[in-house]
Design brief:
By secondary structure, the chain is an alpha/beta fold. The chain has three domains: 170 residues, Alpha-beta prism (UDP-n-acetylglucosamine1-carboxyvinyl-transferase, Chain), CATH 3.65.10.20; 106 residues, 2-Layer Sandwich (Dihydrodipicolinate Reductase, domain 2), CATH 3.30.360; 56 residues, no CATH class. 30% of the residues lie in helices and 27% in strands. It is built from nine helices and 16 strands. The strands form four sheets. It has a four-stranded mixed beta sheet with strand order 1-2-4-3, covered by helices on one side. Strands 5-6-8-7 form a four-stranded mixed beta sheet, with helices on one face. A four-stranded mixed beta sheet has the order 9-14-16-15. Strand 12 and strand 13 form a beta hairpin. Helix 1 runs parallel beside helix 2, helix 1 runs parallel beside helix 9 and helix 5 runs parallel beside helix 6. The chain is globular and about 55 Å long. It starts with a strand and ends in a 5-residue tail after the last strand. InterPro entries: RNA3'-term_phos_cycl_insert, RNA3'_phos_cyclase_dom, RNA3'_phos_cyclase_dom_sf, RNA3'_term_phos_cyc, RNA3'_term_phos_cyc_type_1, RNA3'_term_phos_cycl-like_CS, RNA3'P_cycl/enolpyr_Trfase_a/b, RPTC_insert. Belongs to the RNA 3'-terminal cyclase family. Type 1 subfamily. One of its GO terms (molecular function) is ATP binding. This is RNA 3'-terminal phosphate cyclase. It holds the Pfam family RTC_insert.
């Protein structure tokens, strides 16, 4: 059994360890789960991820409960099938999907998982990020996956649901060393129907579009970052019936061979225009790095690099990246993160090499 220390990692460490344990068949025991956090131990979405991957692998588990700082996980083998998991309250269903999707490389038949919980909650990628940024990029390298969103759910009540289906997949290497010009920008704004009278979704979407089109952030267009004013900007503003009020806006930058996403949640007392500006500011910061993917996607792609090989230029190195890379190497994957004048590049040999 592989002994792992979760003191320096967060939920990403738990999800990556689960995915690689399932794919490799290596049993794991994680101690000091989220030990460096103010509220250490497993949270509802971590428990749900362990349950979901556990059911998909007929794993033997122990110590899996909310607040637990130690658990073990011993998979039998990746199985297909269909089942549902309750994440609880507003635990992130998107983060559970992150743990499940890599199992596609070891499946022999489809796996369908329906998750109930929060689709758009703090400290987690909103479901539009998963649907419009991460999954399209992974499909381009061979992941066979479909996502159906049934209902949106905001913090603190949740009440959202989605279904993820993955099929046996053979991956090609990721080649994301350079970023091409932004070909299209898409803005997805969604708010609870109780906020429609205040036009919250429209205000979110239009503020993002206007900030980009009028160049009010200053250096929006430069030759070095290859952002063009002619990039098409599409906006979508919608409303949904939800169990509690909320709003979310996601900006997707399509660079042809790569994608990046930037998002923000509405908050009580904060004007929609201010929320939208947070998204554009994050887009501007990413643009200045020259990296083909955003910071969060770069971290999440490390496990896929281990499985498929290739190279990805990251916006910058972070503690998350270093901790995640060290964990992946514990499973004997040759993942390297190099910081040079050309930027931070994560790389791994493909399985055929």
């Amino acid at each position: 059994m592989l002994q792992l220390d979760g003191r320096d990692g967060g939920g990403q460490l738990v999800r990556t360890a689960l995915s690689l344990s399932a794919v490799t068949g290596q049993a794991i025991c994680i101690e000091n789960v989220r030990g460096g956090r103010p509220n250490p131990g497993l949270k509802p979405q971590h428990v749900a991820a362990i349950e979901t991957v556990g059911r998909a692998t007929e794993a033997t588990v122990s110590g899996v409960e909310r607040g637990s700082e130690r658990f073990s996980f011993a998979p039998e083998g990746v199985r297909g099938g269909a089942f549902a998991v309750e994440v609880g309250t507003a635990g992130s269903v998107a983060l559970v999907c992150d743990a499940v999707a890599p199992l596609a490389v070891a499946l022999d038949r489809p796996l369908t998982v329906t998750l109930h919980g929060g689709t758009d909650v703090q400290w987690s990628p909103p479901v539009d990020y998963l649907r419009e940024v991460k999954l399209p990029l992974l499909r381009a390298v061979g992941l066979d996956a479909e996502l159906a969103v049934h209902q949106r759910g905001f913090y603190p009540v949740g009440g959202g649901s989605l279904t993820l289906t993955i099929r046996p997949s053979s991956l090609t290497a990721l080649r994301l060393r350079r970023r091409g010009p932004v070909e299209r920008l898409s803005v997805y704004a969604l708010a609870s129907d109780s906020l429609e009278s205040a036009s919250v979704a429209e205000r979110l979407a239009e503020t993002v579009r206007e900030r980009i089109e009028d160049g009010s952030e200053g250096e929006m267009v430069t030759e070095t970052t290859e952002i063009e004013t002619t990039a098409e900007i599409e906006t979508t503003a919608t409303y949904a019936e939800t169990d509690c009020p909320g709003a979310v806006v996601t900006l997707v930058a399509d660079c042809g061979t790569s994608r990046a996403g930037f998002d923000a949640l509405g908050r009580r007392g904060v004007p929609a225009e201010d929320v939208a500006e947070e998204v554009v500011d994050a887009f501007r910061a990413w643009r200045a790095t020259g990296a083909p993917v955003d910071e969060h996607l770069g971290d999440q792609l490390l496990v896929w690099l281990a499985l498929a090989g290739g190279e990805v230029r990251l916006p910058h190195s972070t503690a998350h990246v270093e901790t995640n890379a060290e964990l992946i190497r514990a499973f004997e994957y040759d993942l390297q993160v190099d910081d040079s004048e050309q930027g931070v590049v994560a790389s791994a040999p493909s399985p055929e090499e």
